[in-house]
Amino acid sequence: MVSASDPAVERFAPSPTGELHLGHAFSALTAWEAAQAAGGTFLLRMDDLDTGRCRPKFARCIEEDLRFLGLTWPEPVLYQSTRAKSHCAVIDDLADKGLVYGCVCTRAEIQAAAGAPQEGAPDGPPYPGTCRERSEVPSDKAHALRLDMKKAIDFLGGPDAVRALSFEEIGEGPRGEHGMIPLDPQMLIEQVGDVVLRRKDGAIAYHLGVVLDDGFQGVTHVTRGQDLFPSTPIHRLLQALTGTPTPVYRHHRLIRDENGRRLAKRHKDLSLAVLRESGATPEDIRSSVGLAPAGQSAG
Ligand code: GLU
Fold first, then answer.
1. Does the CB atom of residue 80 touch ligand 1 within 6 A?
2. Which GO CC annotations does the UniProt entry carry (predicted)?
3. pLDDT by residue (tens digit) across 23-42?
4. What one-character DSSP code corresponds to residue 190?
5. Whose CA is nearest to atom 8 of ligand 1?
6. What is the pTM for the complete model shown?
7. What CA–CA distance (Å, rounded) separates 136 from 18?
8. 15: Cβ below 6 Å to ligand 1?
9. Ligand 1 centroid distance, CA of 217 (Å)
10. Domain ranges of the chain
11. Is residue 280 helix, strand or coil?
Protein backbone atom coordinates (compact mmCIF):
# COMPACT_ATOMS: atom_id res chain seq x y z
CA MET A 1 0.00 0.00 0.00
CA VAL A 2 1.11 3.54 -0.75
CA SER A 3 1.94 5.53 2.36
CA ALA A 4 0.74 9.08 2.98
CA SER A 5 4.39 10.18 3.17
CA ASP A 6 5.37 8.95 -0.34
CA PRO A 7 6.16 11.71 -2.87
CA ALA A 8 2.67 12.69 -3.90
CA VAL A 9 1.30 12.04 -7.36
CA GLU A 10 -2.14 13.64 -7.39
CA ARG A 11 -4.53 13.69 -10.30
CA PHE A 12 -7.68 15.30 -11.55
CA ALA A 13 -9.55 12.92 -13.85
CA PRO A 14 -12.66 14.48 -15.40
CA SER A 15 -14.78 12.90 -18.11
CA PRO A 16 -14.92 15.23 -21.13
CA THR A 17 -18.70 14.84 -21.43
CA GLY A 18 -19.57 18.44 -20.61
CA GLU A 19 -18.25 21.69 -19.18
CA LEU A 20 -16.68 21.76 -15.74
CA HIS A 21 -18.55 23.42 -12.89
CA LEU A 22 -17.55 24.86 -9.52
CA GLY A 23 -17.50 21.37 -7.98
CA HIS A 24 -14.82 20.31 -10.46
CA ALA A 25 -12.87 23.50 -9.77
CA PHE A 26 -12.89 22.69 -6.06
CA SER A 27 -11.75 19.13 -6.69
CA ALA A 28 -8.96 20.11 -9.10
CA LEU A 29 -7.73 22.93 -6.84
CA THR A 30 -7.77 20.64 -3.78
CA ALA A 31 -5.67 18.02 -5.59
CA TRP A 32 -3.36 20.71 -7.00
CA GLU A 33 -2.77 22.33 -3.62
CA ALA A 34 -2.12 18.99 -1.97
CA ALA A 35 0.47 18.22 -4.66
CA GLN A 36 2.08 21.65 -4.23
CA ALA A 37 2.18 21.34 -0.44
CA ALA A 38 3.88 17.94 -0.72
CA GLY A 39 6.31 19.01 -3.45
CA GLY A 40 4.64 16.39 -5.63
CA THR A 41 3.14 16.11 -9.09
CA PHE A 42 -0.32 17.02 -10.33
CA LEU A 43 -1.61 15.06 -13.32
CA LEU A 44 -4.57 15.72 -15.57
CA ARG A 45 -6.21 12.62 -17.04
CA MET A 46 -9.19 12.49 -19.39
CA ASP A 47 -11.54 9.72 -18.31
CA ASP A 48 -13.01 9.27 -21.78
CA LEU A 49 -14.11 5.63 -21.56
CA ASP A 50 -17.67 6.55 -22.45
CA THR A 51 -16.67 7.46 -26.00
CA GLY A 52 -20.30 7.99 -27.07
CA ARG A 53 -20.65 10.94 -24.70
CA CYS A 54 -17.10 12.37 -24.76
CA ARG A 55 -16.27 15.27 -27.08
CA PRO A 56 -12.88 16.85 -27.96
CA LYS A 57 -14.41 20.33 -27.47
CA PHE A 58 -15.11 19.50 -23.82
CA ALA A 59 -11.54 18.23 -23.32
CA ARG A 60 -10.25 21.54 -24.76
CA CYS A 61 -12.57 23.52 -22.54
CA ILE A 62 -11.44 21.54 -19.45
CA GLU A 63 -7.81 22.39 -20.19
CA GLU A 64 -8.68 26.09 -20.67
CA ASP A 65 -10.62 26.16 -17.40
CA LEU A 66 -7.78 24.58 -15.45
CA ARG A 67 -5.14 26.86 -16.95
CA PHE A 68 -7.35 29.81 -16.11
CA LEU A 69 -7.33 28.62 -12.49
CA GLY A 70 -3.52 28.61 -12.60
CA LEU A 71 -2.95 24.86 -12.80
CA THR A 72 -0.25 23.17 -14.87
CA TRP A 73 0.47 19.51 -15.53
CA PRO A 74 2.94 17.40 -17.46
CA GLU A 75 2.11 16.66 -21.10
CA PRO A 76 0.88 14.54 -22.74
CA VAL A 77 -2.42 14.17 -20.93
CA LEU A 78 -3.41 10.51 -20.68
CA TYR A 79 -6.69 9.62 -22.37
CA GLN A 80 -8.09 6.45 -20.79
CA SER A 81 -9.44 5.22 -24.13
CA THR A 82 -5.85 4.78 -25.35
CA ARG A 83 -5.33 2.10 -22.70
CA ALA A 84 -8.09 -0.22 -23.96
CA LYS A 85 -5.67 -3.03 -24.84
CA SER A 86 -4.18 -3.18 -21.35
CA HIS A 87 -7.63 -2.94 -19.78
CA CYS A 88 -8.85 -5.87 -21.91
CA ALA A 89 -5.80 -7.96 -21.01
CA VAL A 90 -6.65 -7.54 -17.33
CA ILE A 91 -10.25 -8.62 -17.93
CA ASP A 92 -8.98 -11.68 -19.83
CA ASP A 93 -6.81 -12.51 -16.86
CA LEU A 94 -9.73 -12.20 -14.44
CA ALA A 95 -11.81 -14.35 -16.82
CA ASP A 96 -9.05 -17.00 -16.87
CA LYS A 97 -9.32 -17.07 -13.08
CA GLY A 98 -13.06 -17.82 -13.47
CA LEU A 99 -14.14 -14.54 -11.86
CA VAL A 100 -16.01 -13.00 -14.80
CA TYR A 101 -19.26 -13.86 -16.57
CA GLY A 102 -21.25 -12.43 -19.47
CA CYS A 103 -24.53 -10.63 -18.83
CA VAL A 104 -27.24 -9.82 -21.36
CA CYS A 105 -29.73 -8.24 -18.94
CA THR A 106 -31.12 -4.82 -19.73
CA ARG A 107 -31.22 -2.02 -17.17
CA ALA A 108 -35.02 -2.37 -16.95
CA GLU A 109 -34.78 -6.12 -16.28
CA ILE A 110 -32.24 -5.53 -13.53
CA GLN A 111 -34.38 -2.83 -11.95
CA ALA A 112 -37.48 -5.03 -12.05
CA ALA A 113 -35.71 -8.05 -10.55
CA ALA A 114 -33.89 -6.05 -7.89
CA GLY A 115 -36.93 -4.28 -6.40
CA ALA A 116 -36.48 -1.27 -4.12
CA PRO A 117 -33.11 0.47 -4.32
CA GLN A 118 -30.83 -0.14 -1.34
CA GLU A 119 -29.18 2.70 0.47
CA GLY A 120 -25.42 2.83 0.03
CA ALA A 121 -25.29 0.85 -3.23
CA PRO A 122 -22.81 2.83 -5.37
CA ASP A 123 -24.21 1.73 -8.73
CA GLY A 124 -27.92 1.51 -7.96
CA PRO A 125 -29.53 -1.81 -7.08
CA PRO A 126 -27.08 -4.70 -6.92
CA TYR A 127 -27.33 -7.03 -9.88
CA PRO A 128 -29.67 -9.91 -8.98
CA GLY A 129 -27.41 -12.50 -10.62
CA THR A 130 -29.71 -13.70 -13.41
CA CYS A 131 -26.91 -14.35 -15.91
CA ARG A 132 -24.55 -15.77 -13.28
CA GLU A 133 -26.78 -18.84 -13.20
CA ARG A 134 -26.81 -19.28 -17.01
CA SER A 135 -24.48 -21.96 -18.28
CA GLU A 136 -23.60 -19.88 -21.34
CA VAL A 137 -24.33 -16.38 -22.62
CA PRO A 138 -25.78 -16.33 -26.16
CA SER A 139 -22.72 -15.34 -28.20
CA ASP A 140 -24.77 -13.48 -30.82
CA LYS A 141 -26.08 -11.03 -28.21
CA ALA A 142 -24.22 -7.95 -26.98
CA HIS A 143 -23.22 -8.69 -23.43
CA ALA A 144 -21.56 -6.93 -20.55
CA LEU A 145 -18.88 -8.65 -18.45
CA ARG A 146 -19.44 -8.75 -14.71
CA LEU A 147 -17.22 -9.65 -11.79
CA ASP A 148 -18.61 -12.56 -9.76
CA MET A 149 -18.27 -10.88 -6.35
CA LYS A 150 -18.61 -14.05 -4.25
CA LYS A 151 -16.01 -15.88 -6.31
CA ALA A 152 -13.73 -12.83 -6.21
CA ILE A 153 -13.89 -12.79 -2.41
CA ASP A 154 -13.16 -16.52 -2.28
CA PHE A 155 -10.28 -16.06 -4.73
CA LEU A 156 -8.76 -13.51 -2.35
CA GLY A 157 -8.91 -16.01 0.51
CA GLY A 158 -12.48 -15.60 1.75
CA PRO A 159 -14.31 -13.04 3.91
CA ASP A 160 -11.65 -12.84 6.64
CA ALA A 161 -8.89 -12.16 4.11
CA VAL A 162 -11.03 -9.46 2.50
CA ARG A 163 -11.82 -7.89 5.88
CA ALA A 164 -8.05 -7.53 6.33
CA LEU A 165 -7.91 -5.32 3.20
CA SER A 166 -8.30 -1.62 3.86
CA PHE A 167 -7.66 1.81 2.43
CA GLU A 168 -6.46 4.97 4.10
CA GLU A 169 -8.86 7.91 4.09
CA ILE A 170 -7.12 11.20 4.83
CA GLY A 171 -10.14 13.32 3.95
CA GLU A 172 -13.62 12.43 5.06
CA GLY A 173 -16.37 10.15 3.77
CA PRO A 174 -20.00 11.34 3.78
CA ARG A 175 -20.47 10.06 7.35
CA GLY A 176 -17.19 11.38 8.67
CA GLU A 177 -15.25 8.21 7.79
CA HIS A 178 -11.54 8.80 8.30
CA GLY A 179 -8.40 6.73 8.88
CA MET A 180 -7.97 3.09 7.90
CA ILE A 181 -11.23 1.78 6.44
CA PRO A 182 -11.46 -2.03 6.25
CA LEU A 183 -13.49 -3.74 3.54
CA ASP A 184 -16.77 -5.36 4.49
CA PRO A 185 -17.25 -8.55 2.44
CA GLN A 186 -20.91 -8.86 3.35
CA MET A 187 -21.61 -5.32 2.17
CA LEU A 188 -19.70 -6.03 -1.06
CA ILE A 189 -21.89 -9.07 -1.74
CA GLU A 190 -25.24 -7.69 -0.59
CA GLN A 191 -25.08 -4.02 -1.55
CA VAL A 192 -22.50 -3.82 -4.33
CA GLY A 193 -22.84 -7.20 -6.02
CA ASP A 194 -21.45 -8.26 -9.38
CA VAL A 195 -20.11 -4.98 -10.77
CA VAL A 196 -19.73 -4.45 -14.50
CA LEU A 197 -16.12 -4.61 -15.72
CA ARG A 198 -16.84 -4.16 -19.42
CA ARG A 199 -20.02 -2.60 -20.70
CA LYS A 200 -22.25 -4.01 -23.43
CA ASP A 201 -20.88 -1.46 -25.90
CA GLY A 202 -17.37 -2.78 -25.28
CA ALA A 203 -16.21 0.16 -23.13
CA ILE A 204 -14.30 -0.67 -19.95
CA ALA A 205 -16.41 0.30 -16.97
CA TYR A 206 -15.48 3.13 -14.61
CA HIS A 207 -14.39 1.10 -11.58
CA LEU A 208 -11.83 -1.02 -13.38
CA GLY A 209 -10.60 1.80 -15.63
CA VAL A 210 -9.94 4.15 -12.73
CA VAL A 211 -8.10 1.49 -10.70
CA LEU A 212 -5.88 0.39 -13.57
CA ASP A 213 -5.04 3.87 -14.79
CA ASP A 214 -4.33 5.30 -11.35
CA GLY A 215 -1.95 2.34 -10.99
CA PHE A 216 -0.45 2.86 -14.45
CA GLN A 217 0.23 6.53 -13.73
CA GLY A 218 1.69 5.87 -10.28
CA VAL A 219 -1.00 7.94 -8.58
CA THR A 220 -0.33 7.93 -4.83
CA HIS A 221 -3.21 10.18 -3.75
CA VAL A 222 -6.74 10.16 -5.12
CA THR A 223 -8.55 13.40 -4.33
CA ARG A 224 -12.22 13.37 -5.29
CA GLY A 225 -15.75 14.15 -4.08
CA GLN A 226 -17.50 12.27 -1.30
CA ASP A 227 -20.00 10.95 -3.84
CA LEU A 228 -17.29 8.47 -4.89
CA PHE A 229 -16.52 7.29 -1.35
CA PRO A 230 -18.95 4.32 -1.62
CA SER A 231 -17.08 3.18 -4.76
CA THR A 232 -13.74 3.01 -2.93
CA PRO A 233 -14.23 -0.49 -1.42
CA ILE A 234 -14.86 -1.74 -4.98
CA HIS A 235 -11.65 -0.06 -6.10
CA ARG A 236 -9.73 -1.59 -3.19
CA LEU A 237 -11.06 -5.05 -4.05
CA LEU A 238 -10.14 -4.61 -7.73
CA GLN A 239 -6.65 -3.48 -6.71
CA ALA A 240 -6.23 -6.70 -4.75
CA LEU A 241 -7.50 -8.80 -7.66
CA THR A 242 -5.30 -7.12 -10.26
CA GLY A 243 -2.15 -6.57 -8.19
CA THR A 244 -2.49 -2.78 -8.46
CA PRO A 245 -1.10 -0.55 -5.65
CA THR A 246 -3.62 1.16 -3.38
CA PRO A 247 -3.34 4.96 -3.27
CA VAL A 248 -4.29 7.09 -0.28
CA TYR A 249 -7.80 8.56 -0.63
CA ARG A 250 -8.86 12.10 0.17
CA HIS A 251 -12.60 12.48 -0.32
CA HIS A 252 -13.79 16.07 -0.01
CA ARG A 253 -17.06 17.87 0.60
CA LEU A 254 -19.34 18.43 -2.37
CA ILE A 255 -20.15 21.86 -3.72
CA ARG A 256 -23.91 22.42 -3.70
CA ASP A 257 -26.22 25.03 -5.17
CA GLU A 258 -28.42 27.34 -3.10
CA ASN A 259 -31.03 24.55 -2.82
CA GLY A 260 -28.49 22.13 -1.42
CA ARG A 261 -28.33 20.09 -4.63
CA ARG A 262 -25.02 18.69 -5.75
CA LEU A 263 -23.81 20.46 -8.89
CA ALA A 264 -24.06 18.49 -12.11
CA LYS A 265 -22.87 19.18 -15.63
CA ARG A 266 -26.43 19.91 -16.73
CA HIS A 267 -26.54 23.08 -14.58
CA LYS A 268 -25.01 25.12 -17.37
CA ASP A 269 -25.31 28.43 -15.53
CA LEU A 270 -22.60 27.33 -13.11
CA SER A 271 -20.10 26.12 -15.70
CA LEU A 272 -16.61 27.53 -15.32
CA ALA A 273 -16.60 28.55 -18.99
CA VAL A 274 -19.71 30.69 -18.47
CA LEU A 275 -18.31 32.17 -15.26
CA ARG A 276 -15.03 32.98 -17.03
CA GLU A 277 -16.84 34.63 -19.93
CA SER A 278 -18.93 36.69 -17.56
CA GLY A 279 -15.75 38.15 -16.05
CA ALA A 280 -15.18 36.00 -12.95
CA THR A 281 -11.54 35.90 -11.83
CA PRO A 282 -9.76 32.82 -10.50
CA GLU A 283 -10.00 34.41 -7.03
CA ASP A 284 -13.78 34.74 -7.46
CA ILE A 285 -13.95 31.02 -8.27
CA ARG A 286 -11.81 30.14 -5.25
CA SER A 287 -13.91 32.23 -2.94
CA SER A 288 -17.21 30.82 -4.24
CA VAL A 289 -16.06 27.28 -3.37
CA GLY A 290 -14.79 28.36 0.06
CA LEU A 291 -11.06 28.34 -0.70
CA ALA A 292 -8.69 30.95 0.67
CA PRO A 293 -7.01 33.27 -1.87
CA ALA A 294 -4.14 31.58 -3.75
CA GLY A 295 -0.97 31.44 -1.70
CA GLN A 296 -2.83 31.73 1.61
CA SER A 297 -4.14 28.16 1.86
CA ALA A 298 -3.35 26.20 4.96
CA GLY A 299 -0.88 23.37 4.71
N1 GLU B 1 -13.69 10.28 -13.96
C2 GLU B 1 -14.42 10.36 -12.74
C3 GLU B 1 -15.45 11.46 -12.81
O4 GLU B 1 -15.42 12.27 -13.71
C5 GLU B 1 -13.53 10.61 -11.56
C6 GLU B 1 -12.58 9.50 -11.35
C7 GLU B 1 -12.28 9.30 -9.90
O8 GLU B 1 -11.90 10.24 -9.22
O9 GLU B 1 -12.41 8.21 -9.44
O10 GLU B 1 -16.31 11.52 -11.94
1. no
2. cytosol
3. 999 999 999 999 999 999 99
4. I
5. 224
6. 0.93
7. 39
8. yes
9. 15
10. 9-288
11. coil
